[in-house]
Amino acid sequence: MAGTAVRGRLTWQDATVGVVKDETPEVRTISLDVPQWEGHRAGQHLDVRLTADDGYRAERSYSIASAPGEQVAITVERLPDGEVSPYLTEELRPGDDLELRGPIGGWFVWEPADGGPLLLLAGGSGIVPLRAILRYRERTGSTVPVRLLYSSRSWPDVIYRDELEQPAAGVEVIHTLTRLQPPGWTGYARRVDAQMLAEVVWPEDQAPLAYVCGPTSFVETVATGLVGLGYPAQRVKTERFGATGGTR
Amino acid sequence: MSHVSRGFHGRRRAAPEGRVPPGQYVTEDFPVLSAGPTPHTPLSNWTFSIQGGSEPKSWTWDEFRALPTEDITTDIHCVTRWSKLDTMWQGVSVDTLLDLVEHDAAYALAFSDGGYTTNLPVEDLTGGRAWVAFNYDGDSLPAEHGGPARLLVPHLYFWKSAKWVRGLRLMDTDEPGFWETYGYHMYGDPWREQRYAGD
Hints:
The structure holds two protein chains of two kinds.
Chain A: E1 13-24, E2 27-33, E3 45-51, E4 57-63, E5 72-77, H1 85-91, E6 97-104, E7 118-123, H2 127-139, E8 146-152, H3 161-165, E9 171-177, H4 194-200, E10 209-215, H5 216-228, E11 236-241
Chain B: E1 25-26, E2 47-51, E3 57-60, H1 61-65, E4 70-77, E5 82-93, H2 94-98, E6 107-112, E7 117-121, H3 122-125, E8 131-136, E9 139-140, E10 150-152, E11 165-171, H4 178-181
Parallel strand pairs in B: 1-5, 2-11
Antiparallel strand pairs in B: 2-3, 4-5, 5-8, 6-7, 6-11, 8-9, 8-10
């Protein structure tokens, strides 16, 4: 377990909303100017705090979507029953202030020195921290080979679609569309299962490093599947978001 | 109030007075958060052991299940901000286990299948405040929630309630476990919002 950077107290910082970009009808990327930001690692998250005018507060964690060294950005999926995500995706505008603290988490991170080949497996908005890893790989000139298997409901639900359509050299992107496929789609059209994993993943004898992020059911299937294919459990890092049930 | 978020009103959810710590919201779901694949240890290979006492102590699954059990109804609080009220568990009190071990340790490191660890003061594991739980909501604890057995220390953030727990290592001094090494709080009291180091 490398990278045990324990910092001092994580204080709340003021950020200003920069560019916002709608990735899909339900997902928005928010760039943030954070003057006091001390940097982050690819895969970490941050906490956002909202305060109503009567002092009521709500906090949530979001994966950082940008690579270390880039402007801080988060990508937020609007949850139908959410309290914070509808505000961030519908109300928040460029120039607004936002309080945040971070970076948080030091396990689900990747550094070029960690090597690979890298196997990235994303379900829905689980792509966000993996996108930070992809961008960091490109930014650092790493040539570690990458395969990304990304499960989305439909093509319009694919987050970072333009970026993923033009991957960097050495990066293979494999989509599966679980609910609706465009006409002529020849790719996978089902939920990730053991057979799909067997077809897609790096053989375990290449000592791959796997990062799995998505809803609980996705992560359970994938992580168990990888162990079944011989991946040592300690080379399968997972991050799950389960509170919303997440059917993908 | 120094910092108001323009246009944010919040959706204050009805919650019983005094039950939900600051910064938490009540969920009806039971979210799953773990750092790696879910281990599946057969019960025939399962043991619970206590190390670091005057002599090591270990129970097989059958021996463990022959110990007296307690029913627990409690609220649980995850550092990712969900709280779940009135969860129902069955388990063996850690008092029952530690009573069978001679020791004067002040701290313990819980260890689990898959390599997970978390540190707790012995004081927080005793006095009827901690259990090794094997049933949830009337059924065996599902593997993704930590089955066959997990630690249950509901007065601390839930990462302290180690899933897939296999034992306790008793220690004289406090040592960080898995998440504590990555910047999470050494103690983790939800009522004092001790989420990260320094909180």
